[in-house]
Amino acid sequence: MITLRYFASLKEALNRSSEQLNIVEPLTVLDVWQLANPDLLLAENMLTAVNMDYVPRTHFVHNGDEVAFFPPVTGG
């Protein structure tokens, strides 16, 4: 089982801050996103982290991991 966490405007857009998924084999971060959100594309500028370390969307996720998704932040 893995834990997914959604932050900031993404949390509001998805109407959830976290969820858990059962996975049988290692999946990439992108695969995990598509499994949890099949109708939504993972934006190119979305930040992703596994176990609190930023990783690319090609990073493999294993049972017990926590995967976090952060929308891009703008400032000025």
Descriptive account of the structure:
The protein contains two helices and seven strands, in the order E-H-E-E-H-E-E-E-E. The model has no long low-confidence stretch (mean pLDDT 94). The strands form two sheets. The chain has a five-stranded mixed β-sheet with strand order 2-1-7-4-5. Strands 3-6 form a two-stranded antiparallel ribbon. It is an alpha+beta fold.
List the helices and strands and how they pair.
Blueprint: E1 2-6, H1 8-14, E2 18-21, E3 27-28, H2 29-36, E4 47-50, E5 53-54, E6 60-61, E7 66-70
Parallel strand pairs: 1-7
Antiparallel strand pairs: 1-2, 3-6, 4-5, 4-7
- Name of the CATH superfamily: Beta-grasp domain
| Oligomer class | single chain
According to CATH, what is the class?
A: Alpha Beta
Distance between the termini: 39 Å
Helix coverage percent: 10-25%
Report low-confidence residues grouped into runs of 5 or more.
none
**CATH architecture descriptor name:** Roll
Q: Helix/strand-derived class? A: alpha+beta
Order of helices and strands: EHEEHEEEE
How many structural units, i.e. domains?
1
How much of the sequence lies in strands comes to: 25-35%
Number of helices: 2
Task: Supply database-style keywords.
76 residues; alpha+beta; Ubiquitin-like (UB roll); five-stranded mixed sheet; two-stranded antiparallel ribbon; 2 helices
Task: Offer a concise description of the structure.
With 76 residues, the protein is an alpha+beta fold. It has 2 helices and 7 strands. The chain has a single domain (2-70), classed as Ubiquitin-like (UB roll), CATH 3.10.20.
